[in-house]
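Hello,

Our lab assistant flagged a job as stuck in the queue for most of the afternoon. It eventually completed. Since we weren't sure the result was trustworthy after the delay, we are filing this so someone can double-check. Below is the sequence as submitted and the structure that was eventually returned. Let us know if re-running is recommended.
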Amino acid sequence: MRITYIADIHGHTEFIPRLPPADLLLVGGDFTQFGDRNAVAKVLASLRQRPEPVLAVLGNLDAPDAQDVLTQNNAALTLTTTTVGGLRLAGLGGANTSPFKTPFEWDDSAVEQTLNQAFPTPDALDILVSHAPPYRSGADRLPNGTPVGSQAVAQAARRLRLPLLLCGHIHEADGIFDLDGTIVVNPGPFSERGRHACIDWTAGQRPTVWLA
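-- returned structure --
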């Protein structure tokens, strides 16, 4: 199965036609730059012109009520498991709190409880798409070296023995990282020349991931 993963679109739909063919397109949030639900719908409509199915979460710069837009278009990844091509996926939109008070932020301790309730047992998922990167994963490092990711997401990755975690949010922290056995991928912002990650995965095997 070939998966394309993008995050941090920020309204730059002009790069969408450049994406390579895939079986599934995953989107890690920030469709917009402080846009409302209509702005999210416009970007999603551009994504849905591609032939592969689209599944997505919102980012911290998207309006939280745009979740309905994803749901109505059968594009929502939530904390209910979705199975595609034998792979089990779930999603977490928004991000942990920041000094900037962006539109879609949440309390890390509350999200930890939510993740524990949604996935109480290890090995419950193959892929978690989280706009917020896991804490101290490398994918959450600011240019000055400060880690700003979610501790709840990091704890869930370890507890679930998660094979693959796809994130974004911190533009400068692009790369492929290892968090105690979990492959963590931050492709960098799609808004910069259409940056993306490609994943080849056969169920039951470890994925192959590269950035483009």
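-- support follow-up --
The delay was a queue issue, not a problem with the job. The result is valid. The chain has one domain: 2-211. The longest strand covers residues 87-92.
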